[in-house]
Write a structure and sequence with these properties.
Chain lengths: ~150, ~270
């Protein structure tokens, strides 16, 4: 095996291993890229600033382009106010928070919300509310594993 | 520790097998019943005629201008169908005429189509999302007969494996692909490795990539290409990509052009 071929294999292997190191130390469960405290602060801020919204933590929501399907699927739900945000949906890929604008007085249907997000390729983990100014997390029941 | 060992085994496996050249739509559409179209304008210039890893004829150039029409449909997010149809706008190459001069040859027209069925297994973690891919591929001969052929008008079958993930700041794609052809074309192995860093110019979503490809053909040809790329998400529907790759290492098993550069401009629409 000549030197060039050895170098090519070495470079490919090193970059591949490096990527796993980056991924495993910054993005896996248990060692999140966005700490829970950071997400909680962002959630409290969002809930205090906005009215008539549903705020969710969606696992894997780190790529705004890949998550366009969430906007397409969730934006069509009957209780969503598509005139607000972009088609009624705002995505914060840094905190992995999904804000859904609700029509005035409308109550979100969590079953439909879970199905829409799952069909879009993501995993809804929990939704948030404020109870006397304190953040309260409501975990979703796991209905379908990511494919 | 187990995760690291798993990652290492994954690496070795991936390096043995892949291909993943859906530049704009590799991560999209990942939603049920999503579909997309993509147009790629490719220009490449090869500056020498090579035999093995030496320059046999310096200054014997080849210029190729291609359009690629591509499409994707996602049934369920784990099953896609993609097609690729290249069109040679103009290809021109200089070959030795046997009397010490140059003979100029041309090719144009439709190229060989590729159908693929990428099967994806997605994962969503806290701070990371990605997929594993297995992709059977079929090459359909549609090219014509010109002075020479960019596409060889042969049936072919291929298999690809891929692994990719994204985080809020980083993106990573790797793939291994293998092709075998019905006619005289040598079998091919393609390796790709793309590393990306996300930026947000003017409130839009973009990713800067450094991409490296290695192509091997069983007639002994080897090419290592590498270079930068930028992906730009204009809005929910329109996506653009610009890439430049340079041949850093080129070896030809038979007399062929090499030592070149290629530029690709892609426009993708997803729905």
């Amino acid at each position: 095996m000549n030197l060039v071929r050895k170098s090519i294999i070495l470079v490919f292997s090193s970059m591949f291993l490096l990527s796993f190191e980056v991924a495993s130390s910054h993005g896996a469960d248990g060692d999140p890229d966005v700490k829970q405290e950071v997400r909680n602060l962002a959630a409290v801020k969002k809930l205090k600033e906005s009215k008539d919204i549903s705020l969710l933590y969606v696992k894997g929501l780190v790529c705004p382009s890949c998550a366009l399907g969430i906007r397409i699927k969730v934006g069509k739900l009957p209780f969503v106010d598509s005139a607000r945000y972009k088609r009624g949906v705002d995505m914060d890929s840094k905190a992995q928070l999904l804000t859904v604008a609700l029509l005035p007085g409308a109550k979100p249907d969590n079953g439909k919300m879970i199905k829409a997000i799952t069909d879009a390729g993501y995993e809804p983990a929990e939704w948030y509310s404020l109870d006397k100014g304190k953040l309260k997390a409501h975990p979703f029941a796991v209905t379908k594993k990511s494919k | 520790m187990c995760r690291r060992i798993g990652a290492f085994i994954t690496l070795l496996f991936s390096l043995l097998v892949l291909l993943g050249d859906e530049p704009v739509m590799n991560m999209m559409p990942r939603w049920d019943n999503g579909w997309g179209l993509q147009l790629i304008d490719e220009y490449r210039h090869e500056k020498d005629l090579l035999l093995d890893d030496r320059t046999a004829y310096s200054g014997f150039t080849e210029d190729v201008h291609l359009l690629h029409f591509q499409g994707v449909y996602t049934w369920d997010r784990s099953i896609r169908l993609t097609y690729k149809l290249p069109y040679v706008l103009d290809a021109r190459r200089e070959m030795p005429d046997g009397r010490g001069g140059k003979r100029v040859e041309h090719d144009n027209g439709i190229g060989d189509a590729t159908l693929a069925l990428p099967l994806k297994k997605y994962f969503n973690l806290d701070g990371r999302s990605g997929s594993w891919m297995f992709k059977p591929m079929l090459r359909i001969p549609l090219a014509g007969n010109d002075d020479y052929e960019i596409y060889d008008n042969e049936w072919g079958g291929g298999l690809g494996l891929g692994y990719e993930f994204e985080m809020s700041r980083f993106a990573f794609t790797s793939s291994v692909g293998f092709w075998a052809f019905d006619g005289e074309d040598p079998s091919e192995i393609h390796l790709t490795l793309d590393l990306g860093y996300k930026i947000e110019p003017f409130g839009t979503n973009s990713t800067l990539y450094w991409e490296t490809d290695f192509h091997y053909e069983d007639d002994g040809s080897e090419t290592l290409l590498s270079g930068p790329a930028i992906y730009w998400n204009f809005n929910d529907i329109t996506h653009m990509r610009l890439e430049w790759k340079h041949d850093f290492y080129d070896k030809q098993g038979k007399l062929d052009h090499g030592n070149g550069d290629r530029i690709l401009l892609s426009l993708g629409l997803v729905f």
